[in-house]
Amino acid sequence: MEKKENKIDFLFEKDYYEEESFEKINFKEHKAVKIEFYKCTFTSCIFIKSFFENCVFEKCIFINCDLSVVKFTGSSFIDVKFVNSKMIGIDWTLVQKPVSINFLKCLLNDSSFYKMDLRSAQLEECTAHNVDFENSNLTKVVCRKTDFLNSKFNEADLSFADFTGAFNYSINPSITKIKKAKFSLPEAVSLLNTWDIIIQ
């Protein structure tokens, strides 16, 4: 029988945190307003359904955290990395622009990056089912080994993006820019689905 980890119930009491480490805190369904985090590390924390309004995250890293259905209204992300984290149902269009975020081995299902500028971002070895990337700037984005089942890329700019090892994507080259983008076989054959041809 697995031993359950105790999560410490926590509320942010300061408006500025620098180079602090937060471990196993439970911030579920809580609200934080106008708090700045600089070079902070969050490890095994729970933020389910929490609300961050006009907060700033700069050079922070989230490891093994659950941020499902979090709202980041008006919040800023500057050079922030998420690792092995669960991030289902997040509307990233609510964050302050521009945004600089990277994901490694994260669960990003049912999230929206609609019309966002994600140039040079990283989504490596992630699961991104039903994610909306339509009309987004994904130039030079690294998407290696990511599962994009049922995700939407219509009218996005994927120029110079790296989809090496990515799979389950459905991209229509007629309405999506893919100049110099990298794809792997056999998955890259799906790019021909639009043209109703038979490949033998």
Please give a handful of descriptors for the protein shown:
four-stranded parallel β-sheet; 200 residues; six-stranded parallel β-sheet; 0% helix; Pectate Lyase C-like; elongated; 2 domains; mainly beta
Give the structure's gist in a few sentences:
This protein is mainly beta and 200 residues long. The chain contains no helices and 16 strands.
Structure description:
The protein is mainly β and 200 residues long. The protein has 2 domains: 15-88 and 96-102, E3 ubiquitin-protein ligase SopA (Pectate Lyase C-like), CATH 2.160.20; 108-200, E3 ubiquitin-protein ligase SopA (Pectate Lyase C-like), CATH 2.160.20. Helices cover 0% and strands 23% of the residues. It is built from no helices and 16 strands. The chain has strands at residues 8-9, 16-18, 21-23, 25-26, 31-33, 36-38, 41-43, 51-53, 56-58, 61-63, 76-78, 80-83, 101-104, 122-124, 162-163, 182-183. The strands form 5 sheets. Strands 3-7-10-12-13-14 form a 6-stranded parallel beta sheet, with no helix packed on it. Strands 2-6-9-11 form a 4-stranded parallel beta sheet, with no helix packed on it. It is elongated.
Helix content: under 10%
Number of domains: 2
Radius of gyration, Cα only, in angstroms? 18 Å
Tell me the major beta sheet: 6 strands, parallel
Low-pLDDT residue intervals, each spanning 5 or more residues:
none
- State the strand order across the main sheet: 3-7-10-12-13-14
What's the SSE pattern? EEEEEEEEEEEEEEEE
- Gap between N and C termini, in Å? 51 Å
Dominant shape: elongated
